[in-house]
């Protein structure tokens, strides 16, 4: 039996979450769901011990309740936002396995919000960085440091092109170099299974974007070639991991 008196939510309270979970389990309760989001995933990103403790209950509700599955996915996405997030998540292994299965089943139906749900799958697979970083590759720009010379390099993947460049705030992206996407057969995990899932579900833009992000870029400043994924991960590590 969970001792909810020890489980603080996003507002520092301990008793409200189990009451709300009971309520949404019994009836249609839009206001209760709104409050659960506020307490378990404030602003869509702030999680707490109560958030992880709620995951088994959300996994029970999820097969028949889209709200529960979406909230559970958002909580797992926020794992690295809490200093004890990974330890708290480790206590929910059965719930995570069930949620992962449900999210994968949902992706197979090719929903309109595929990319958001794909991000939930990444989080449930422990790929927290890519869950937060991966977008829809329509008009995606990111900045990484060249690992060889330290120059700030803009990486573009989308309708405007797939290139590395130096960003000039007056002239735009200059000194462009075409990206070198990884051949599908040479991808390694996590890029390999990410790409395979997108291909399975006929998400061509996503699949091609993954090939580019897990490919290589030329630095316009020093002409060295580097792994985009490695540079991107290094640039976006949470502070807690940078100092560990």
Can you give a write-up of this model?
There is one protein chain. With 244 residues, the chain is α+β, with helices and mostly antiparallel strands. The protein has two domains: 4-133, no CATH class; 139-242, no CATH class. Helix content is 48%, strand content 14%. It contains 13 helices and six strands. A hairpin with a 2-residue loop joins strand 2 (152-158) and strand 3. It is elongated, with a radius of gyration of 20 Å. The protein starts with 15 loop residues before the first helix and ends with a helix. Residues 240-244 have low confidence and may be disordered.
Write the layout of secondary structure elements.
Layout: H1 16-26, H2 30-40, H3 49-53, H4 55-61, H5 66-77, H6 85-90, H7 93-108, H8 114-124, H9 128-133, E1 139-145, E2 152-158, E3 161-168, E4 172-178, H10 191-200, H11 204-213, E5 216-218, E6 225-227, H12 228-235, H13 239-242
Antiparallel strand pairs: 1-2, 2-3, 3-4, 5-6
Helix pairs in contact: 1-2, 4-5, 4-7, 5-8, 7-8, 10-11
- Order of SSEs: HHHHHHHHHEEEEHHEEHH
Question: Strand order within the widest sheet?
Answer: 1-2-3-4
Q: What is the 3D shape? A: elongated
Q: What is the count of β-strands?
A: 6
Bin the strand percentage. Answer: 5-15%
Number of helices: 13
Mean pLDDT value: 92
- State the helicity in percent bands: 40-55%
Low-confidence sequence ranges: 240-244
Structural class: alpha+beta
Quaternary state reads single chain
């Amino acid at each position: 039996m969970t001792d909810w008196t020890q489980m603080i939510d996003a507002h520092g309270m301990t008793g409200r979450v189990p009451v709300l979970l009971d309520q949404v389990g019994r009836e249609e309760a839009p206001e209760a769901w709104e409050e659960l989001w506020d307490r378990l995933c404030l602003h869509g990103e702030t999680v707490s011990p109560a958030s992880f403790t709620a995951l088994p209950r959300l996994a029970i509700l999820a097969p028949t309740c889209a709200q529960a599955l979406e909230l559970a996915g958002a909580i797992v996405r926020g794992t690295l936002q809490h200093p004890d997030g990974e330890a708290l998540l480790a206590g929910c292994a059965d719930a995570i396995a069930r949620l992962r299965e449900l999210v994968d089943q949902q992706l197979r139906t090719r929903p309109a919000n595929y990319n958001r749900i794909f991000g939930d799958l990444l989080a449930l697979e422990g790929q927290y960085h890519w869950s937060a970083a991966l977008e829809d590759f329509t008009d995606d720009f990111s900045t990484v440091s060249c690992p060889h010379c330290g120059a700030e390099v803009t990486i573009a993947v989308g309708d405007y092109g797939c290139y590395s460049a130096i960003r000039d705030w007056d002239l735009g992206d200059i000194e462009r170099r075409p990206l070198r996407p990884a051949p599908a057969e040479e991808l390694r995990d996590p890029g390999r299974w990410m790409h395979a899932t997108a291909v399975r579900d006929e998400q061509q833009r996503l699949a091609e974007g993954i090939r580019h992000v897990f490919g290589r870029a030329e630095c316009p400043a020093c002409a060295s070639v580097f792994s985009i994924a490695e540079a991107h991960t290094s640039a976006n590590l949470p502070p807690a991991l940078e100092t560990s």
